[in-house]
Queue: 3 jobs
Job 1
Amino acid sequence: MHRQFIPAIAAMFMAAATPSFAEIAPIPAQKNWVDAKRQVTLNDGLTVSYVEMGPPDGQPILLLHGYTDNSRSWSLLAPHLDGRRLIAMDLRGHGDSDAPICCYGIDSLASDVNAFMEALGIEQADVVGHSLGSMTAATLAAYHPEKVDELVLISTSAYLPKEAGDWLWDNVPALQRPIDPDGEFMMNWYWNPTPVDEGFLKRERTESAAAPEVTWMGVLRSLGLTDWSRIAGRIKAPTMILWGDQDSLFDATSQDHIKTVLPDAKYGTYAGHGHNMFWEIPQQVGADITQFLGQ
């Protein structure tokens, strides 16, 4: 064989043997969600699970879920964030990520997210957070402004309102384990003022009920000491805040406060919808997020 043909033939074989890294990762079906999770170990030894969807070369959106939820929380919204690389984490203690004894404050969670981005080689991303995830996202944006391009805070507050905190303290420490995913507390915990797909909610309740006690109590104890308004001035990313006016955890007073904390943020209210409005009306919320991130 002539020498000049050898490199060309070798390149052909290599191309055939190498997988295409441009292949779009599909959004897993609900029944396949757990099997679609990948894992990465952070620089401190914590192993974190996540689901990646969309084109791997797309602009990344990092998705951070709420208290006792996991990456599945984004499964209804993901189809409406088309064309973007979506990376949905399981925060520490949630889903299939490690659940260490300590620590569950939003500073520790934000540190995990920063290390997660480093582990995946993500220099900068748009970050979308819900509830606890929104507090974590805001903290990340304040501590590491170079990492956050644009910021979306869904059902957020700078602090845990007293009424919500009292309800949680009256119920969470008293939960009997194993927690019944269809018991009164869990049904209230996942209450929504308008219908949400029950197949999705059943899996959410089951996985949330299985979260270890260290997660339930670790987050609750930390939230009682949380007020990230003191670092909000360090947030440089353009920010959008979304809230449902039937939110049973973060009340209207907390929203008046957040408007003073982030006065330049774009603010949107969904009348008749609750804390999980992105489950109730994912198409509308997805369109609003997409429009904001595309500006």
Job 2
Amino acid sequence: MKPKVFLEFVEIKSLIASVLPFVLGSLYAIYNYHQVHLGYLLLFFIASSLFHMATNANDNYQDFLHAPRDADNQEFLEETNVVGVNQISIGQARTITFSLAGVSLILGLWLVTKTGLPLLWMGIYSYAVGYFYAGGPKPISSGPFGEFFSGFTMGFMIFWISVFINTYDVATITWQSTGQVLVAAGLAIFAIANIMLANNICDMDEDIALGRHTILYYLGKPVMLQVFAWSYVAGYLCLIGAVVIGVLPPLSLLTLLSAIPVYRNTRQFLQKQVKRETFILAIKNATIICLSFAVFMGLGLLF
């Protein structure tokens, strides 16, 4: 397989959605617990990145495998899905997917032996979501909870695991500490969930033709466009709440400046929802939000 095809198959461009929560979780641990385990953190970064690519690859080949073979879906099979466009065999697709996931699993299990069982339970949840998101008899992505699982798993779980790996030897997991991490990660959760929501909004007609009953199928596009817009507001409120309870540095509030470009992009998306033209706006919003969050949180650590 050519490198260009491989990178397209694993959707390397989407890796930013897991890298930034990783950075944010690490900064959270430094701010609140004043320590970092750099070696373990690096291994987790590699493991999570490999698994993110494996999940994307699994999504692509599962979508191709389960798409109805009729005239209505020929365009999806031959011109849209990366497996069909590049004529990737199912065997090759599976080999790549399970190889990436296997290496990630080995690294994850080794980290469990060093940090403790909580990481095992976090990992089991994450791997289960990663597979069943597109695999199994009823994939998560084909139902009404795709946005929740994508936002929660990437925006919160990666953030939380990054915190745990840096603090496993100085702090225990409690309901209070978990709730604090959840609030602090809220901005990333909503921004990442909106990537999935924007994708489903743009693909609504195609999804219905393929038999997918996403949240759009039940609540309709007008309602979900409002949810898309207000989700960013909810994320910014989480940011303010996290600063108020003292788990984020006050300078993190400068992240609110990102609301200006996010507002412009959101208005543009609300006016036109076309996959090849405006879906990128949701990715831009998530990148702007999480990157500015990381920068201003980092500045908060310095000053």
Job 3
Amino acid sequence: MQGLISLDLVDLVMAVGLMAIAIGLSAWEGLGLELNLAIATGRTILQLLVLGYVLDFIFALDNPWAVLAILGVILTITAIVARNRISQKIPYVLPLVWGAIFISTALTVFYTTFLIIQPDRWYEPRYVIPLAGMVLGNAMNAAAIAGERLVSSMNSFSTEIETHLSLGATPAQAVSQYRKDAIRAALLPTLNQMMLVGMVAIPGITTGQLLAGINALDAVSYEIVIIFMVAIANLLTTVLLTKGLCRQFFNSAAQLVR
């Protein structure tokens, strides 16, 4: 079986041609997306090239502290991005997001590494970094969706929440439905992916492994593991985050703080 076909600089320039066509099409249709597409193209190239060099260095270094350091950086960036999408006005949103994503990712990667993949070393970079990175990226999106949905609901239905409180409900009871709705909204993309994976499109991880010459059954086996990792991590992230966010809306007297 042929291995991975390496791409040189000329191939990457040809790939940029795809985005040049997209920019031209946007201009033709008068969409006004030319600048956004150009900036996105430049950022994609720069960020992925930097990532490639960093990972190449980490893999060559083969040190557990280096692995933990790069994962810590990725975790912090994902937490900041999710926080910005939720709210910067609510106290302690960043540590809440950071903690929720950290706990869910750590537990999920720990379970997968020690019970399923079982590499020779727990910090094996070529396993731990891609798996954790995949989980972190998805957990970030789930946290952003759940957090934004919950904050929006709390602000929109504050009168109803106060009515529940006046009737004797606890803060947790008063916001229970809004919290559940936020978690469901965050999990919906993951559930849709799980329902249609392999039927509508070949997932990115599977595609990459197939291009690298990996056996198809081995490729889909890893995809199954990753999808299940993402599902539980997203659920755990949203459960922890929404619980923490709800507490920020009430004072010590169980009164709603607007």
